Amino acid sequence: MTQTSKRYIDLVYGPALRTPEAIAVVCGQERLTFSQVHKRAGCLGAAFRSLGLVAGDRVALLADNELQYLEIQAACLRSGFTLVPLNARLTGPELEYIIGDCTPALFIGGKNYAETVLRIGGKCDIDRLYSTAENSVVGSYQALLDSAIPDPDADPTDNELNTLILYTSGTTGHPKGATIDRMAFSARVMGNAMEMEIGQDEVLLQNLPLFHISAFLLYAYFFRGARCVLLPTFDPAKALDLMQKEAATATNGVPTIIAMLLEAPNIDAYDPALLRLITYGGAAIEPSLLRQAIAKFACGFQQHYGMTEAGSACMLKAHDHDPDDTEALSSAGCDAAGYELRIVDENGKQLRNGEAGEIILRGVGMMTGYWGHPEKTAESLIDGWFHTGDIGYRDERNFLHVIDRRNDMIISGGENIYPREIEAVLGEHPGMPDAAIIGLPDPRWGEVVSCVLSEDAPAEEDLETWLRERIAGYKIPRQWLRVPQLPRNATGKILKVQLRKQFGGK
Q1: What gap in Å lies between CA 20 and CA 16, rounded to an integer?
Q2: Within 10 A of 414 (CB to CB), how many other CB atoms are there?
Q3: Whole-model pTM above 0.70?
Q4: Which of 43, 112, 174, 416 is the most buried (most CB within 10 A)?
Q5: Local structure of residue 350 (DSSP, 8 states)
Q6: What values do phi and psi take at 363, rounded to 5?
């Protein structure tokens, strides 16, 4: 059925009407107003169509945080294209897999990634290659932008068009692309804007990379007409300087970033008087660290529990961050607006408060599925409920406590790392080491990737070299441990719970 009116948000249309000359986005010395972003997003949609792209085509983007990220996302949302943001920390083979999986019609690189786009685009037979860099080895993004004029009548109105494919790390060696349509995108942005109580006179410093779901935090501020300041790559001292210089009222991070800010050499010179809110998530945070941050920054804190497939589904609000309430500080809060969470047993029966089971959820921001993988979608989305694989319980206040991950996922510095992916690469080594990847507690990173080897396995240096050539650096084990032989159950499965208990104190 043809839609007669738009039913999804436009990231920049409203602010461009209300406050056209207000600064929308800042990155280094570059600044754009809302009217400029509005026009550039319209031109970009027309430019993509001039290259032959049609609604539903994918646009891959490999970049650090930079101005163009926002206008590319705004253009894709408005004109019906699907943005595929790529993790800039991935290796060539990992990026090649994703590009091959989503088959983009267009591949754009940021200022530092023109050579990578040329190399990977060539390998994957992508012939529309562009970069935001000057004098690039591929097509000029700016020239493409300048070549077109906005054509709003060509923008499709189908609210079920995918506007994002966000790739998650793969539990079986390959990542999966979570598809997010225009309605789910709208729900995530509007829900965050409401839950964070964002005003249009605010200034956000975006610490987190825009290829993660943290982008929805920035989009919520941008949608409300607030100024968004981008830090291309996180540096704690630079972040504090920017917060002071730009009079930031809000910022975001993972627990590791919060710890690094507190340890920055210029922390004592930073005046938090204008700071209203710090949003954090991505991993559990130690209550002691949270208390330090609350005392130092003297602002509101809000924790988001969520995932690529669902967005921010559960939140611990600012008024629940009582430094004397350890139980609340160690929780993930309550269901966010538009979401419903349940704790169920292995048969899908809902459990009572205090009983631990799998966390399942449903909500307005849910993905439509995994790109090209209907069987994996069916495994995760059952009767409208997304099965997270996380284990948790609710306390007497209905606060959610996440206590384990059924799929053994490791969260280190806010990055999701899946042991099976690393183990699969180790299994290709000529020595075929008997190895198990586990996460062990770390006060700075939350968890560190650790590899437990049998005593007859190859040397750690050899295995590390092998891994570094094949997977991203943040997935490389930081600890190498040896045992006479890996413990296994009757079916041969490695008992990782036993290994975590054995080495958990190290």
Answers
A1: 4
A2: 21
A3: yes
A4: 43
A5: B
A6: 175, 175
CB within 8 A of 109, min separation 6: which ones? 61, 62, 63, 116, 117, 129, 130, 131, 132, 133, 136, 138
Give the integer Cα–Cα distance in Å for 12 and 75: 10
CA gyration radius, the chain: 23
Q: How many CB atoms lie within 10 A of CB 412?
A: 23
Please tell me whether residue 343 adopts helix, strand or coil conformation: strand
Pick from 90, 22, 93: which is nearest to 62 by CA?
A: 90
Q: Where are the alpha helices (DSSP H) in 332-409?
A: 374-380
| Nearest-angstrom CA–CA distance, 268 and 264 | 9
Rounded (5°) CA angle 102-105-108: 95
Q: Token pair of 35, please?
A: 């009217």
* CA–CA dist 35, 15 (Å, integer): 8
Q: What is the average per-residue pLDDT within 47-69?
A: 97
Q: Which of 214, 286, 282, 285 is nearest to 250 (CA)?
A: 214
Nearest residue to 170 via CA among 378, 416, 421, 469 = 421
Pairing of strands 227-230, 250-253: unpaired
Q: Quick one: tokens of 411?
A: 């969260």
Dist. CA 173–CA 422, nearest whole Å: 8
* Structure-block tokens of residue 317: 């609000």
DSSP per-residue string spanning 226-238: -EEEE-SS--HHH
- Among the listed residues 279, 134, 115, 145, the one whose alpha carbon sits nearest the alpha carbon of residue 202: 279
Residues in the chain: 506
Identify whether the C-beta of residue 15 lies closer than 8 Å to the C-beta of residue 227: no
What does the alpha-carbon distance between residue 431 and residue 415 come to, in Å, rounded to a whole number? 29
> Which tokens go with 138?
């591929």
Angle between helices 114-123 and 92-102 (to 10 degrees): 60
State pLDDT tens for residues 217-235: 999 999 999 999 999 999 9
pLDDT tens across 80-112, in order? 999 999 999 898 999 999 999 999 999 999 999
Structure tokens belonging to residue 106: 């267009």
Query: Residue range 308-312: average pLDDT?
Result: 95
**Packing angle, helices 182-195 and 215-223, rounded to 10:** 80
The SS3 assignment for 454 reads strand
- 7: DSSP letter: -
Instruction: Say which residues have a Cβ less than 8 Å from residue 99's Cβ, sequence separation at least 6.
Output: 60, 107, 120, 121, 124, 126
